[in-house]
Amino acid sequence: MTGSADLPVPLPSLSDLVVERVGFGIFVLDRNMNVLMWNRFMQDHSGFAPEAVIGRPVFDMFPELPRAWLARKVESVFQLGSFAFSSWEQRPWLFRFDHDRPITGGVDHMQQDCTFMPLMHGREVIAVCVTISDVTHVSIMQREREEAVEKLREFADRDGLTGIANRRFFEARLTDEFTRWQRYGGDLSMLLFDLDHFKLINDQFGHVAGDTVLRVVAQRVSDMVRKQDVFGRFGGEEFALLLPCTPLGDAMGVAEKIRRSIADTPIEVQGVAVCVTASVGGAAARVGVPDYEAVVNEADEALYRAKREGRNRSVALG
């Protein structure tokens, strides 16, 4: 008589082996959200073996799941009999699994794409198969790419020496603000200023020292402007400040603060205190001014009037 030990052990089917070994999560839910299947990926990442999960409502084992969202998603597959999908960009994860990427990637949990597939018996949906794909690497790469593009865009908008807006970006913002002013009215002013006798500083101390002066001036003015203002370098030693929602009188008050912040405190260059002054011209959008270039031209004319009148002063035009 042959003992039970001699009975052949049934081999798993190829489909069972594939489901167990694939590198993504697979689990199956019935209409009551009970778990009918739970593969090795889900076991390894959740810490729950199939026998602990199968036959129980998925929300009992994982109360942190987005209950309303997941129930709607599964029910829509039962009703429509069609696939559904969720990207990590819409919902970063379904299950809060750990990932195996470096912590420097800026991602706390495994980023997941989810597919919801109807399992049919004839024309009836009898269960929904959900797959979980680990796309953490893809999400990190995309975030890094977006950050790189954003930095490139920021560098393209910034003056390389001072770090403030360059002329291209300033004029783009001025165009936008002038269009807004034409549509809604209100106040819009701008200031142009440059450093008096800047060539003498370069000639006496060298261009490296001149660059130091430009950076210090840019920092002083940056510390004074509001968040909604746009401060940029127009070229050489000339700067521009756009002041949305600001009447010209108030703008000239800002001009005086800028002028004094530059003139009252010498800038140390190579151990020497260099006195620096600035001339400021102001102008504002008003009825009869056809475009933003006219505002720039009026501010420029006011600036040169300030220089003709002796420099280290503020002059308004308009």
From TrEMBL:
SMART domains: GGDEF, PAS. It comes from Paraburkholderia dinghuensis. This is diguanylate cyclase. GO terms for molecular function: diguanylate cyclase activity. Pfam families: GGDEF (PF00990), PAS_4 (PF08448). CDD domains: GGDEF (cd01949), PAS (cd00130). It comes from the Bacteria. It catalyses: 2 GTP = 3',3'-c-di-GMP + 2 diphosphate. Residues 186-318 form the GGDEF domain. GO terms for biological process: cell adhesion involved in single-species biofilm formation; negative regulation of bacterial-type flagellum-dependent cell motility. Residues 18-81 form the PAS domain. GO terms for cellular component: plasma membrane. PANTHER family: DIGUANYLATE CYCLASE DGCM-RELATED, REGULATORY COMPONENTS OF SENSORY TRANSDUCTION SYSTEM. Its EC number is 2.7.7.65. NCBIfam families: GGDEF, sensory_box. Gene3D superfamilies: 3.30.70.270, PAS domain.
